[in-house]
Design brief:
Elements: E1 15-17, H1 20-25, E2 48-52, E3 55-60, H2 72-87, E4 95-98, H3 100-106, H4 113-128, E5 130-137, E6 140-146, E7 149-156, E8 163-170, H5 172-179, E9 184-186, H6 196-209, E10 214-218, H7 219-226, H8 232-245, E11 251-256, E12 261-266, H9 267-273, H10 293-297, H11 306-320, H12 327-338
């Protein structure tokens, strides 16, 4: 499996990323999983618009194009730094000071001159792209124009031409997401996925399956959510080595050709539920939580990473083979016992 991944250049800890579109449109369009980041290595300057009922969102790229899925690494890094700081007791800030060398190491990149130039291009695309969305409430429509960052400042060594430091000013939207811990923890092998489509498919699986056992998509639906601009036929061709290679972190993929259905299966949960001679009495419980349960649970366990708490809760239920009649209530009870996060 690992032969399909890029070699590990540098060890690293947990990676955190928030779903920007979920933050903007709350629960209205959460299930659509908009492909905000481009999967193309060429400049993508085409505006995008997504609609669901009376809600819509538009992405408006700059002359340098939409941010790519590789540009997203910078946001992942910034969010990871913020969360690490919060856990050490530092106050949350919109401004994140970044050591460019540390970022390049973190994201499994080279540290040559071209890599620093590519970092500047990433900032241009992230800072230049804006999005607009509508909010309807009691007959009034409010249009909002937003970005992921509100600016950046860079210091460069005049003699060597290398970037000495970088400061990002994150938008209120991103900071609010971090403050409420609406983030997902990514597998550390995420940066070892070499193709844009591989990263995007992992993101979709990570959000859809989470810590459950599995989740399925019809191939045309997955194609749409991926943001691929190629044909469905081309998308099938791209998916084939991902399915056959079985190298996706956290999840393996089953494909039913007859129904044209892709199923992502959580490797860890599958291992925990495996049994040489399963019987109905010993089967692991199906634990399906409500979409908004983390928001409710956060009131009882403020400061905790809800996804990590959910993972620990599920592991305990599977290990003890508990009979859970109401997964939401059981999880809330687990969080109440934890209480506020103590730094």
């Amino acid at each position: 499996m690992t032969e399909h991944l890029k070699p590990i250049k540098h060890p690293q800890g947990d990676l955190f990323v928030c779903d920007i579109t979920d933050v903007i449109l709350k629960d209205d369009l959460a299930s659509m999983e908009h492909p905000f980041y481009s999967l193309s290595k060429k400049p993508d300057r085409e505006p995008r618009r997504y609609e669901h009922g009376d809600k819509w969102i538009e992405f408006r790229p700059s002359i340098k194009g939409l941010p790519t899925i590789y540009d997203k690494d910078l946001i992942i890094y910034a969010i990871s730094q913020l969360i690490a700081g919060m856990r050490e007791g530092r106050p949350l800030s919109k401004r994140v000071r970044i050591d460019p060398y540390a970022f390049l190491v973190f994201s499994e990149r080279g540290t040559g001159g071209r890599d620093y130039d590519a970092l500047c291009d990433s900032i241009d695309r992230i800072d230049g792209t804006r999005f607009r969305t509508n909010i309807l409430f009691e007959g009034t429509r409010t249009d909002e124009w937003m970005g992921i960052i509100d600016g950046a400042k860079m210091e460069t060594d005049e003699k060597t031409g290398k970037i000495k430091s970088l400061e990002l000013k994150l938008s209120d939207m991103v900071v609010d997401t971090v403050e409420r811990m609406k983030v997902l923890t990514l597998h550390r092998d995420y940066f070892r996925l070499s193709r844009p489509i591989e990263r995007r498919i992992y993101e979709i699986a990570r959000k859809a399956v989470g810590h459950d056992l599995s989740w399925s998509f019809l191939m045309p639906t997955l194609h749409k959510r991926s943001g691929s601009k190629g044909s469905l036929r081309e998308f099938r061709r791209q998916m084939k080595p991902i399915i056959e290679g079985d190298f996706l972190p956290d999840y393996r993929i089953d494909y039913d050709e007859e129904s044209d259905k892709i199923t992502f299966i959580n490797r860890e949960v599958e291992r925990n539920t495996a049994s040489p001679a399963p019987s109905p009495a010993l089967e692991a419980p199906v634990l399906r939580l409500s979409p908004d349960i983390h928001e409710d649970a956060r009131r009882y366990a403020p400061g905790w990473d809800m996804y990590e708490l959910e993972k620990e809760w599920r592991a305990g239920v599977y290990e003890k083979r508990l009979v859970v009649q109401n997964a939401d209530a059981h999880f809330i009870g687990f969080c109440k016992k934890r209480g506020p996060y103590k730094r």
